[in-house]
Amino acid sequence: MGLDFTVVPGHLDIILLGCAWTIGIAVAAALLSFFGGIVFAVIALYAPWIIRQPFRLIEWVFMGTPLLLQLFLIYFGLVQIGIDLPAFVAGIIGLGLHFAVYNSELIQTAILSVDKGQMEAARTVGLSRGQALRKVVIPQAVRDVIPPIGNNMIALLKDSALVSVIGVSELTLSAQRAIGATYRPFEFYLVAAMFYYVINLCMEWVQRRIERRISISR
Amino acid sequence: MSDKDHFVEIRHAQKSYGSLEVLKDISLNVERGQIVAIIGPSGSGKSTLLRAINDLDPLTGGEVWLDGVQVNKSLPHRQYEKHINEMRQQVGMVFQHFNLFPHMTARENVTMAPMLLKGLSKAEADKLAEEQLDKVGMLDRIDYYPSRLSGGQKQRVAIARALAMKPKLMLFDEATSALDPELVDEVNMVMKKLAEEHMTMIIVTHEMDFAASVCDRVLFMDQGVVVEEGPPSVVFKNPTKDRTREFLRKHLAGAA
Ligand SMILES: Nc1ncnc2c1ncn2[C@@H]1O[C@H](COP(=O)(O)OP(=O)(O)O)[C@@H](O)[C@H]1O
Ligand SMILES: [Mg+2]
User: Fold this and answer.
1) Which residues does residue B16 pair with via DSSP β-bridges, in sequence order?
2) What distance in angstroms lies between residue B248's CA and the mean position of ligand 2's atoms?
3) Whether the predicted pLDDT of B4 surpasses 80
C-alpha cells in the first residue's frame, strides 16, 4: 500500500488542535526560558551566596538530567508533595526552566562582556546597581545573545514533543492519535513534520525581525 | 564649620591598590563656579583622584565633601548606597571613551536617568532632551543611535546626558583624548560654554592651551602628589618646580 494523503483531511481538526497546543506550550515555555534565563543569570552573578545555592541545585538538575525525567518529576513527582499541576502547565514549567538554565549560561557570559564603562556611566548619573543592570547592562547583554538564544528556542520547539509523555495532546501525540484511528503512520508523521517545519520558519522569522530591529542601533 | 568653607573639599585623600600608593595625601579645594584643570604624566593618579570625587574609585583614606555634605561618609551598606546615588546625581562625569549607552538614541541617553530618578513625564523629558542636546549642538541628531555619530558628536551627547541631571559639579576625564584632532574643538567649545555659565568643573586634560584659556587654576600631579598648583599664568609660564618645568617642556615639545 502506497502513500494515501486522502485520510488526512478527516483528521485535520485533531492535528490542528495539536498544533495549537504545541505553539501555545512552546511560546509560553520560550518566554519563561527567556525571562527565567535573565533572572537565573542575575542571581548567579550577583545574589548573595545563600540565595545562589538553591539555584545552583536547580541548575544542576536541569542541566545534568534528561528533560524526560524532569517532566516526570514535575508532573508525577510534585503531586506527592501536594502540588498537582495540569499536564500542560507541568510541561511549560519543565521545558521553560530546562531552557532557562541554558539561556542563563549565555546571558551570564554576555553580561560579563559588556564594557565596564557602561556600568560606570550608569552609576555616575545616579542609578543604583540594580537599575544600571536593568536599564543598561542587561539590555545590551541580551542583544548580544539573541542568535544563540534563538537556536535554543528552536531546540525547545523540537523538545516540546516530549510533553506528550505526560499526556498533553500536542502535535506529536495528536499525530499518534490520528494514526491509531487510521493505521497511517507515514502520512500523519509527515504532516506533523510539516507543521513543525512551518512553526520553525515562523520562529526564525520572528528572530530575524528582532535581530533587524537591534541592528538599527549598532 | 570648616566643611562649609569650600564647595568641593578633598582632605588628605589617600588611595592604594595593594602596596601601590596611587594618591598620597592630596588635599584640594574648589570654590563654586571655579574651573580647575589637573595635568600630569600618565599614571600619576589624575583619573583616580577625579573618580574618588563621586566615589567611583573609593578612597582608602581621607574625605571628599561637596557643598557641605561628605560624599564618602561611613554608613551601613544600604544607607550608603542611597546616599551615594543621591550624591552622584549632583555630579556629572564625562569619560574619555564617552560610554554612551549604545542601545539608546541620543534622546534616550539624555532622558533615561531623569525619567527614572526624578520621575519626569515623557513630555518633560523630551523637552529636557531637546534643551540639553540643543545646548551641545546636537539637536539635529536627537534620534540617532551612538553608532551613527562621530566621536565628537558622541562626546557632546555624553555631556548633554550629564547636564540633564542638573549637576552642581562637572568632572571631565580627558574628554578629548580619544578624539581625532579635527573633532577636539567642537567638544572644547561646549566646555567653554559651560565655563561661561559658571559651571563648577574639574578637568583632567592634556591640552595645555585649552586649560590655560578656560581654567582658573591648574594642578600639576606626579606620582600621586600635587607637585604644583596655581593660576595658569604661573603654572604654565613660570613654574616653580623642576618637575613641572620638565613635564611642560616634554609635553609641549611632544605636542608640537
Ligand atoms: N584598578 C586598579 N588596580 C591597580 N592599579 C590601578 C588601578 N587603577 C589605576 N591603577 C594604577 O594607579 C595609578 C594611577 O592611575 P590613574 O589615576 O589612571 O592615572 P592617570 O589618570 O593620571 O593616568 C597607575 O599607576 C595605575 O596603574
Ligand atoms: Mg587617566
Assistant:
1) B21
2) 17
3) no
